[in-house]
Amino acid sequence: MNILEPVLTQEQQALLPTEEDVCFYEEHGWYISPPVIPESAIENAIAGSQAFYRGERDGTLPFDTGYSNWKPEDGDTVRNNEFVSLQKKELKQLALQPVIGAIAARLARTKEIRVLDDQLVYKPASKTNQKVNTTVGWHSDRAYWATCSSDNLLTAWIPFHDCDQARGPLVVLDKSHRWSGLQNMRHFNNSNLSQVTDKLQKEGKKVVKIPMTLKKGQVSFHHCWTIHGSYPNRSQLHRQAFAVHLQDQENHYRPYVNAQGREIHIFDEQLCRRLPNGNPDFSDPNVFPVIWSAASP
User: 226: domain CATH number?
Assistant: First the structure.
């Protein structure tokens, strides 16, 4: 029995992934939910994001650099702001929606889901008099999280509006989480999508692109090794979404040294408390709050 089951409505419980859905996720590396996020939660998050862009904060980070942090002086381009849920209450409320954690727990077959970090991403509308490249390059989230021990992490992608192909949705490469050799799949800022997919095809990979075209209130989930990016926004409307990166119960810090012998660290380590052995505590509730906890997955 789920310890936090009462926080879900009966309607939400009925919309959780079935065993068939979980098996699909395990095979394909992605899952699209029915509409599960209340309209009010999204509208509240939109208002919070607008306040955030105006410089309003409910909390501050101890560092100004070392993470993606768009500022107005950066201009009309793709806005990528990380760890926003630690800085704006409306975004925290969205990130901690219990239904997100309940879905993720089923997909990952884990008893607990915690936040790892988050990204608020805004793509400006297409303008005929100004060419702004709003493509996000192919990458695997796990490739950026070298000091996480788990290969069962996942991400919830929440658009703030209906998102069709013209508006620049998230796109995943089907079944790519099963591929090997993705440790360096860090091409978020490489807008040449075909350059990466051509290389993958030459390596014998079957590249199948699946756009996450969602209605407002739907959420897509993808496995931490699933390769994904996003198409440019070709519409006359902006595109905004919130990506909440999630930890399963077993995830913890592990030291990591790359192939060149260099010790690797992620920014999350600087935000959290330390364990008695001196390692970062990836279960620090002030930085990595629990969204969902259950007696059984």
Answer: 2.60.120.620
